[in-house]
């Protein structure tokens, strides 16, 4: 029976059985595609076959093989059966587990109703975020979507008239649903989250003063949650690595199944989002010659996080921002500024 590098001492079958028996959180079909693709790549290499061998034997294009192994495209059970036969996989339990995984990849994602509202990269990001074992997020100018109040989210998603009212309501609902992950439990308790916000993000008034004060109060509540590390990067901190680039780092994979968690870097560029896997197997949206290394970004993020103060300093900065918003305007009024 073939053993895989991604399953420590376990055979592939037992890895998938653990998922099927409900020992781990339910995975989105997008994540199933990615994991199944990785496993099929490992099986191919373990059997000594090249992509060219698969192309000759099954008549598939290289593009199709890459899309399956990269988790971009699902695979039918019929095609999977032919592939496993070619790889010499004969264990019936193992084959059935893989077939179940293939069927799961072809189901509708729980995020499907929002797919038309977001980019393909962000759609894939949603599925990975939901199953991540840790989440780290940096935002230089706005509050992260997963921490936004409904009022703040409505202003951000509707800015500039890009969406009609119905779409804005759906985007606010999407952000609210994403917040469910903040209380999701993993193998060892609640999933850990880290959020670094530049002081500009808590100083820039989004909407009006009431909206912003409500958002800042919500952040204070978030900062007190035991599984959430929220820190504000003060203006006087100066320039640092990637200080202008909003990004999220996800660790995905289960330590009982994977030798090491994969790191996925999501870069939030308006109109040009990028989703990059540390393993190099799930790149989406990359066009430049220089490919950002998620591990380097993770190291830079950790260094920055360690240089910042504790929760008391963060709460003090948030309370100071609320205080500034509570002062009368120069003309003596406190009339909200129009968005």
TrEMBL record:
Superkingdom is Bacteria
Q: Where is the HTH cro/C1-type domain?
A: 40-93
Q: Which Gene3D superfamilies match?
A: lambda repressor-like DNA-binding domains
Name the Gene Ontology molecular function terms of this record. DNA binding
- Tell me the protein's name: Helix-turn-helix transcriptional regulator
State the organism of origin.
Cryptosporangium phraense
Q: What is the lineage of its organism?
A: Bacteria, Bacillati, Actinomycetota, Actinomycetes, Cryptosporangiales
